[in-house]
Amino acid sequence: MAVTKDMTIGEILRKDETNGIAMILMRSGMHCVGCPSARGESLEQAGMVHSIDSDALVEEINLYLQTAAA
Asked: Within the chain, where are the H helices?
């Protein structure tokens, strides 16, 4: 199942046991991935707070997941 910007940060992080998604989020400027309240925010909400393009982030995460699954 692909990641969407409506998913919470917590849901997205649970898709990857190797922490690759967490690294993508932190590299993009979302350093709050470990914050309990941030895990309940949608990717889109967190993107707005951090002025990050959530659509581009969704693309990058989904590409990572496709590559990791191959």
From this structure: 9-13, 20-28, 43-49, 54-69
Task: Yes or no: say if 67 and 27 are a contact pair by the CB < 8 Å rule.
Answer: no
Distance of CA 15 to the CA centre of its chain: 10
Asked if residues 58 and 21 have their Cβ atoms less than 8 Å apart, the reply is no
Give pLDDT tens digits for 2-13.
999 999 999 999
What CA–CA distances, in Å, run from 36 to 1, 14, 19, 41?
Answer: 24, 14, 16, 10
> pTM value?
0.89
